[in-house]
Write a structure and sequence with these properties.
With about 290 residues, this protein is α/β, with parallel strands linked by helices. The protein is about 30% helix and about 20% strand.
């Protein structure tokens, strides 16, 4: 069975919601993805990412983290298995050109692959097996929703053989609910997706979530950090689009309908609206640096 990255999707009930996936991907790229820039910057600074770095980004989405690493001189490969519409935007963002033999190749030093880690074997400029990756990142945050780390260990285990011995592997997660204002908004998704249980699959982020995932994947924890990543939006409408673009509310839409989700999500966002109309939700995210065996 090919491992895939399990995103922060809630249990799905009923038919898939009818949404414009391309529009959602565009909202993610233009509104939501930038919220994690402080996390990317903190990790890259701590690990001294630069011209000697060969980075494998798991769940690369629309490629902002890859772009930031490439701007520091790193050679980057992005893998995306869950959101092909986001990967299409990464190709645009990184000026990609399709190459049938090796997935999608962008400008020099950048490679994009739709599939699993096995499809991202390191290669040299001639297309042969090349030097191993020196850094692996899995920036999709886990925590807050029960089961959202499921499968991530398998994904990391599949990526580990592609990396140098002792190479850093970075995992990210939500911080404690009391330090993440967005937690109250995410509760809307779980409540609507599973109304009989009230809070649905909600659970607080646990202190050792990242360590447990890393250890299951055979990795050795080797340091961690916390980063403030506030979610800021121009207005409630922009915040609504940004939150919906995450995919976290799709199960709620399927269980109820788009109008109901929009209504309750908008109400939840209003408590974070400032006098000037902007929406501001302070959050703290945690990252773990683990090492390959």
């Amino acid at each position: 069975m090919t491992p895939t990255l399990v995103r922060q999707h809630l249990p799905h009930a009923g038919p898939a919601p009818r949404v414009d996936l391309c529009a959602r991907a565009r909202d993610w790229s233009e509104i939501q993805e930038r919220m994690l820039v402080p996390l990317y910057e903190a990790v890259y600074e701590r690990l001294d990412v630069g011209s000697g770095t060969r980075l494998l980004g798991l769940g690369c989405g629309s490629g902002l983290a890859l772009l930031m690493a490439a701007s520091r001189g790193a050679a980057v490969t992005g893998v995306e298995s869950s959101f092909p519409e986001r990967l299409a935007l990464a190709r645009e963002r990184l000026s990609a050109e399709a190459t049938p033999a090796h997935g999608t190749r962008a400008r020099a030093g950048v490679r994009l692959v739709e599939g699993s880690p096995e499809d991202a074997l390191p290669e040299d400029t001639a297309g042969a097996r090349g030097p191993a990756y020196t850094l692996v990142t899995a920036f999709e945050p886990i925590g807050c929703l029960a089961g959202d780390a499921e499968g991530l260990g398998e994904l990391l285990a599949a990526a580990t053989p592609l990396a140098d011995r002792g190479a850093p592997v970075v995992l990210a997660g939500w911080g404690p609910p009391e330090r993440c204002a967005t937690s109250s908004v995410l509760r809307v998704a779980t409540k609507l997706a599973d109304p009989l249980r009230g809070g649905g699959s909600w659970r607080p982020a646990l202190r050792d979530d990242l360590e447990e995932v890393a250890e299951r994947a055979g990795l050795r924890p080797d340091g961690s950090g916390r980063v403030a990543c506030p979610f800021g939006y121009a207005d409630v409408t922009s915040a609504l689009r940004g939150m919906l673009s995450t995919g976290l509310f799709d199960a709620a839409i399927a269980a109820t309908d788009q109008e109901q989700v929009d209504k309750e999500l908008t109400e939840a966002l209003h408590q974070h609206r400032r006098p000037d109309g902007t929406v501001w939700m302070p959050n703290v995210f945690r990252y773990l640096i683990a090492r390959t065996p």
